[in-house]
Amino acid sequence: MIDPWGNIEISNYEKVFREFGLTKFPSNWSDKLDHYLFKRNIIIAHRDFGKIMQRIKEKKPFIQMTGIASSGKLHFGHKINLDLFKFFKSKGARTYFCIANIDGYVSRPKVKSMEEANEYAINNLAHVLAYGFTKKDVYIQTKKDKIYYSFAFEISKKITEAMFRAVYGHLDLGKAAANMLQYADILHPQLKKYEGKMPSVTSIGVDQDPHARLTRDLAKRINYNLELPSFLYFRHHGGLQKGMKMSASDPYSAVFLDDSIQDVKYKVERSFTGGKDTLKEQKKKGGNPDICKVYEFYKFHYPNDKFVIDIYSKCKKGEILCKECKEKCIAFLSSFLSKHQKKFKRYLGIARRMIL
Amino acid sequence: MIDPWGNIEISNYEKVFREFGLTKFPSNWSDKLDHYLFKRNIIIAHRDFGKIMQRIKEKKPFIQMTGIASSGKLHFGHKINLDLFKFFKSKGARTYFCIANIDGYVSRPKVKSMEEANEYAINNLAHVLAYGFTKKDVYIQTKKDKIYYSFAFEISKKITEAMFRAVYGHLDLGKAAANMLQYADILHPQLKKYEGKMPSVTSIGVDQDPHARLTRDLAKRINYNLELPSFLYFRHHGGLQKGMKMSASDPYSAVFLDDSIQDVKYKVERSFTGGKDTLKEQKKKGGNPDICKVYEFYKFHYPNDKFVIDIYSKCKKGEILCKECKEKCIAFLSSFLSKHQKKFKRYLGIARRMIL
């Protein structure tokens, strides 16, 4: 069976879903939404997303809140979050994309000063603006209204040591503070000053679900009339080598939005594939796209479904070999990045003025 | 020996001072400052106050930061803090008096909502304005610039679980959050946006010293060029009954700035004194002002030194009995409160507009 979207593999997640109380994303919703992230099973699960489906159906507004902690450069793992954000915006979402510069500094030991976090923030913001976000889609933690900060402190009253430790296993005050801001990030769009009570959606990795559950619990416990926030869960986007995460701290694990064409070439050429030991064997038996990092890039990023299905099928049949496939991937990423980076440069100054 | 200012009793504190690393407030500084709180040994100790003495001598500005958590009504225990604040203002201090409404809600289980904290804040603020503070002397946590909030979160990075637990013995996130704001309260006046690096003084009870030490430690550890804040320590102002604290939760423990003349009369008449069992015995042997709650009110509040020394001496000699002494005290407090409460009413509307 040809399954270019790796739906089978999701069965590995199902135990985790049951444990966490997540629901597998239903295929009839994916069909309705008709967007590559759903069709390709990159969004694998949800919590309470029915409310958002309903709002989209009724053409009523809903909140979408997401963001990036300013602790490193953006890579293609972040890009899917940006794609989803643009999609929901097109469906009528009220947009809250957080440039989390306080979070970046406070919660990451490697970020040594607010100045450093702000430099990451400028870089990240210029990328999202270059990617088509407007200034209004975005907010910067340090520039946010004071009501947002008061709200963060107010929420803290409802969190005991035991609750916090159960979810995060530690209690360093800096990390706790960053979490307080994250609850406020997700819930504050429902304050009167912003949209008021309204369904909201935030997209996260499955490993972040305990955080989502605590946020929903807090939404019930604070003295506000709030809709419980909904969550979507991304399939994990692996790094370029086997068993590796895309990580800002390892430049060879990921393709970054700042990477040069040379970088892309170097990284993709050396990436892990599903190729066989010999060309002969591969031509005969075909490759294995399901474990291939190059194919993963296509699946997570290549806009044209037909092209991706085609590559998958050709690979399986041994009709395309790794060298050619990598060249296509390098060409795709290079073309994407060179266009994007031209815009990025134009937004750097704007981003700097917005952050500082 | 006649010692109306209870200097002897301070020997009880000395062990605590040594343990905490506090320094007894030197009598030559008290003489120089020439204010009742120093002369009467109500300020009993300090940490690094020499810097402030120097600034006063050189007629250079310094910061004084103090405030009130919005979790109850003000009583005469709070008044001494207001008196000290006015005194330092007259000596050229840059004034930062915090109406801590977030703190009041977040750190006190009995305060059930921000609305409730804000009602206390309005009451407290109207009192301090009626007592001669200007709007510029005061800031309200929820109305503070966002840089103050960012700064509070930024500080949190330098606090590990172990540090926090060593000082406070717990880690409920609400209380931790309130503490984060308190560090920001004490340190933020030295940010560039405010006064820049400058000696600062905050007055607290001896039991709050671990908090002061942690704040000084943080001032060293954050990436800012800050003067370590100085602290003054108040002698404990007891409640109206033996062994009782002045407490907002027990209306009979304290005289409140909102109390009616009837309340004052009722409370003072029933307060604990140093009187003997019989009038005859008291006339013969004299009373004991050192343990008397009525005398404590004179010592902590009566402006005229000579009057207070006189009462002390007459009591000791049995020349004044409790009934007469209480009547004088009721007259003094009633006169003070009736004048103050007239002004207080005028400021209530202003305070409400400032808080909400």
What does this structure look like?
The structure is a homodimer of 356-residue chains. Chain A is 53% helix and 10% strand. By secondary structure, the first copy, chain A, is of the alpha/beta class. Chain A folds into two domains: 8-234, 3-Layer(aba) Sandwich (Rossmann fold), CATH 3.40.50.620; 261-355, Orthogonal Bundle (Tyrosyl-Transfer RNA Synthetase). Chain A has a seven-stranded mixed sheet with strand order 1-2-7-6-3-4-5, sandwiched between helices. In chain A, strand 6 (200-205), helix 11 (209-221) and strand 7 (230-234) form a beta-alpha-beta unit. The model of chain A has no long low-confidence stretch (mean pLDDT 94). At the A-B interface, helix 6, helix 8 and helix 10 of A face helix 6, helix 8 and helix 10 of B.
Spell out the blueprint of helices and strands.
Two copies of one chain form a homodimer.
Chain A: H1 11-20, E1 23-24, H2 27-33, H3 36-39, E2 43-47, H4 50-57, E3 62-69, H5 76-90, E4 93-100, H6 101-107, H7 114-130, E5 138-140, H8 146-156, H9 161-168, H10 173-187, E6 200-205, H11 209-221, E7 230-234, H12 261-269, H13 279-285, H14 293-301, H15 305-317, H16 322-355
Parallel strand pairs in A: 3-4, 3-6, 4-5, 6-7
Antiparallel strand pairs in A: 1-2, 2-7
Helix pairs in contact in A: 6-7, 6-10, 7-16, 8-10, 12-16
